[in-house]
Amino acid sequence: MKISEEEVRHVATLSKLAFSDEETTEFATTLTKIVDMVELLNEVDTTGVAITTTMADRRTVLRPDVAEEGTDRDQLFKNVPEAKDYYIKVPAILDDGGDA
């Protein structure tokens, strides 16, 4: 699957990143190679291979769900550059502000 330079520029814009034309071309080429390698996995013959749902040899370790005293909010927000009503304010990532 070919990743176009236009797609790289679009994702870069959404991520608030800026790349030179040379970097954009390089990213498009590299990402295309990565996607092609991943798509090769669809061609692997897995006939007779047991389905694996986890590689862990341990079961889930559970602990009691007990409420505990949390950290003081003022202490948590001490190093936050900008906050309002105990929410951390960050720069908008969408041009129109968005709802997300």
From TrEMBL:
Family: Belongs to the GatC family.
This protein's encoding gene: gatC
Pfam family, one: GatC
EC number: 6.3.5.-
Subunit-structure text: Heterotrimer of A, B and C subunits.
Function according to Swiss-Prot or TrEMBL: Allows the formation of correctly charged Asn-tRNA(Asn) or Gln-tRNA(Gln) through the transamidation of misacylated Asp-tRNA(Asn) or Glu-tRNA(Gln) in organisms which lack either or both of asparaginyl-tRNA or glutaminyl-tRNA synthetases. The reaction takes place in the presence of glutamine and ATP through an activated phospho-Asp-tRNA(Asn) or phospho-Glu-tRNA(Gln).
InterPro entries for the chain: Asp/Glu-ADT_sf_sub_c, GatC
Lineage: Bacteria, Bacillati, Bacillota, Bacilli, Lactobacillales
GO molecular function, one term: asparaginyl-tRNA synthase (glutamine-hydrolyzing) activity
Domain of life, source organism: Bacteria
Protein name in the entry: Aspartyl/glutamyl-tRNA(Asn/Gln) amidotransferase subunit C
